User: Fold these one by one.
Assistant:
Number 1:
Amino acid sequence: MDYNPSIIEQKWQNYWNENSSHEPSNDFSKEKKYILSMFPYPSGRIHMGHVRNYTIGDAIARNFRKQDFNVLHPIGWDSFGMPAENAAIKHGIHPKKWTYENIDYMKKELNSLGLSFSKTREFATSDELYTKHEQHIFIEMFKKGLVYQKSSTLNWCETCHTVLANEQVEEGCCWRCDNPVEQRQMPGYYLKITDYAQELLDDCKKLEKGWPSQVLTMQENWIGRSEGLEFDFQLSDESKQKLGNNFDAYTVFTTRPDTIYGVTYTALAPEHEIVKYLMKNSLISEEKIKKIKEMQAVGSRERAQNEKEGLSLEIDVIHPLTGEKVPVWVANFVLIEYGGGAVMAVPAHDERDFEFATKYDLPIIQSIENEKNSFDGTEPTTEYGKLVNSDKYTGMTSKKAQKAIIYDFEQNELGKKVINFKLRDWGISRQRYWGAPIPMIHCKKCGLVPEAIENLPVALPSDVDITGEGNPLDTHPTWKHTKCPCCGEDALRETDTMDTFFQSSWYFMRYTTDQSMWEDKVFDKKSSDYWMNVDQYVGGIEHAILHLLYARFFTKVLRDMGYSSADEPFENLLTQGMVLKDGSKMSKSKGNTIDPDAIIKQYGADTARLFILFAAPPQKELEWNDSAVEGAYKFIKRLSDRSENAQVVKEIPSIDHSSLSKESKLARKKVYEALKKSNEVFESGYAFNTLIAASMEALNALHAQENKDVWTEGYFVLLNLLEPIIPHTCWELSQNLFGLNNFKKLELIEEVFVESSIVLPITVNGKKRTEIEVAKDLSKDEILTLAKEAASKWIEDKGIIKEIYVPNRLVNLVVK
Ligand code: ANZ
Ligand code: ZN
């Protein structure tokens, strides 16, 4: 048989399509596996990262299908988002046209890889049917109090009249027009993910078995729970007066109440109300006001990384324990969104406070002593220790002092123990066209009301001008004018659209439901309860935080709304490594990409799949290597060519193992070792490279022997093992040799692993002279006879005094 990938790959892809070979069954009595690779954004063409992501998922899905599980292996398109709008701005193509043409093209590309996706569960998140249900979910969340509107600071480009995502701000300037970006207060919609902060944190424990630990750590840090003391600093009487008696005090949060005697100043965020008041009423100099404005102009995330900056606000507060005056500063590293937007600063024991104090020549007071790390004023000591200079707490350990100080604050009603989370509510408003419209209506009489369910979807208008300036929904002449669903009066539609992460937070649930129910239901509870959780999720590490956290949040919300019973979406998570070329990430901007289509054309999809899975374990980085691609091709060709040695049979011949030659025995052993490997690999870790290596060894061992039955059995096993990796070749060879679709779970045969002979070293007077290979079941006398024969040259006529046989180990002969 000549190996001709382009012919056989087309043949089998057609066959699978025509026979709906990869559709899940609706028989829920069967054991299931839900295997999912993260769905792609339809950017235009697939890249090697896609090939890797989908080949890994496909191999897993095929393996379980072969083992007779009911397998759900779907694909869809994460198809809203900015690139479509950018294409519209640049090339004048309508975002919808651009998106759906890309989907059609990429669908063909994915199909040419022989991926075993279900064809009946596919959707794009920009489909109006998807939007309809998504808006329904949104409205239910709104009714449950999980959606609210608030104003917050966003990046704004005055030239383009648009809000920019953080990623669109390049060195403080708009990515499109290069003008400086401002910070603007803008109203937007928020999801109350913080309501679920504790559960999201607690349930990380449930994922320890199936998720990479570094991903869980990233999730935990992002949620960022910390316990500490919250208390108020009272303003001094003079300062109260200065502030027109509009403020008495402000709140700070500290995780280190044990350091409270080391406080030498406090610092407010530039957006703090007191700072704003001082500026508005010109209670500080013009120069200071200008400086604060500069701080405010930088986004808080960026600011936190910049050099510490600040200035004195010329007011002071009273230390709650010592009664001494403490100066108040404004500082760029204090975040308005955290704690109370103010900090107690302890330069002796905190890095940032130290840097700031050194820069501005503020006092530094030690309050913690640590034997290992003594404080000498040149750098802060941040470790726990024993308290010094701390009045009645002096001498206590940090741990003990924290408890005692919190207790005393609570007793005296000066403050309280609080739990803070870093996690913020999720702002989902985008001022763009190509997204799901937020289904809310502003009515003069009724206020903010959701659109009526029967009017969903709120679809996008198709006649829009996309220029990059402003929000096309807002500037559209008619779209936003509607009637209030409550009172029927004229009202205005919300023109914000949803963050695309909203769509990817529940798409995996949508797949669980048969297409026949898609019109009426978000998804079917019985189906989702059967298919969830996703048994194996495969995707890039870049989604380790946001996408996974949002998906976990939605799963819990949908559970609480009664839609499904799942607590967590993804039982097991595999984060695939990057594809590199010449040591750096393959990317268009670096110009070092390899086009998957070209590889498929030249070598076939099976070669691409084999190379990708052989070159590195899936979790590790993979370096592109032309000669390894060539090598993968040659192996498949060899596998194909050598299939001539196997017989065309209906049933696999049974083999009398003991009667085989040494070489044939070894070949069977190698074949079944590969099977063992396969079981291990799919059980955990998915180190496909080891399975492929074992299969290559097995093919070589088969080639080193001549028994036809061993060849035949060997092919039967190898084609089964390799089907998940190189499906086209395996289906073709399997059809030729064994009839159609002979893929199944195979049993190990133990006898091939049992060694029938052993090698025994023979020593004469303790010195190793030679060795013999003997059958395992030989008696001691027979072994000694053989040993003496073999060692006769060293014994000569010296006469044997003693013959020692240590079973399975050695023979020692003692001569005169
Ligand atoms: C005094 C102190 C002394 C602190 C010390 C730390 C070490 P996590 O663990 O992240 O919750 N902080 C509080 N509010 C802040 C804000 N709005 N912006 C910036 N920093 C803020 O961090 C809590 C610590 O971060 C708090 O504990 C506070 O500094 C600072 F030796 O208080 B600490
Ligand atoms: Zn109304």
Number 2:
Amino acid sequence: MKTVTTSARLRKAVKAARREGKTIGFVPTMGFLHAGHMSLVERARRENDLVVVSIFVNPTQFGPNEDYHAYPRDEKRDLAMLEQAGVDIAFLPAADEMYPKGFSTYVLQEGTLTGTLCGRSRPGHFRGVTTIVAKLFNLVRPDQAYFGQKDAQQVAVIRQMVKDLNFDVRIVDCPIVREPDGLALSSRNTYLDPDQRRDARVISQALFEARAAIESGQRDAAAVRELVRSRIASVPSVMIDYVEVVDADDLTPLQRLRGRVMIAVAVKIGRPRLIDNIQLTVQ
Ligand code: AMP
């Protein structure tokens, strides 16, 4: 595995592969890797000749009072995991490599996808995401890029950006990887103390109960939302940011459940903010 830290070296490394006609798979991450990230890496490995993974805690997607400086980092362990998974190129740029002095061009997506859910709670977050992903796409020029459904809104926003700005890349979304008790894997789970970790189970439990209710015939979005809300609210340490029942593709709120449906949740447990969702097709 080649580890590169500059854009120039990254470009050079992927250019050589492209000239040989190799297909390029790309997985952008913020590091502190877990089995969720690795499921994306493994899929990229199966489907491409060359696999590039970036590890970059992107400052522009964090708000002023968020956890940019505290975000967990373990470069050595991450690199060992990527090496083990057969990754070809790991890209670990410093912040001033991606945002050198004088940096002033951002990618801003307007419209409904960025104005709801996490976009509403974290102003500026998706501007940071679209900007860094556009930069990384321009550097790597992947044939396919892999994202987790855990960040379903991010996938929708990136798909829209790819369409709007004519990026020549196929976006592949991959299922959420969970702990045995249901909690969605997240680098931020490491912030949870043992009590908070136990309480965090309610997030996925509430979502799974909502799925069971829908499978038993419930079609009223307000009732499903209330079920999830009250289940989570029964655990006092878990503060709800939002619970929404939306169309899984355009993220607009639903009244009756039909087609591709997503139930999306964001909570705070102490300082950490955690998100989760389930997606299902309703006849
Ligand atoms: P992050 O490092 O949190 O920015 O995540 C990098 C990529 O891994 C994103 O596309 C995430 O959606 C994906 N990811 C994070 N957690 C999970 C998970 N539990 N299951 C599947 N994909 C995930």
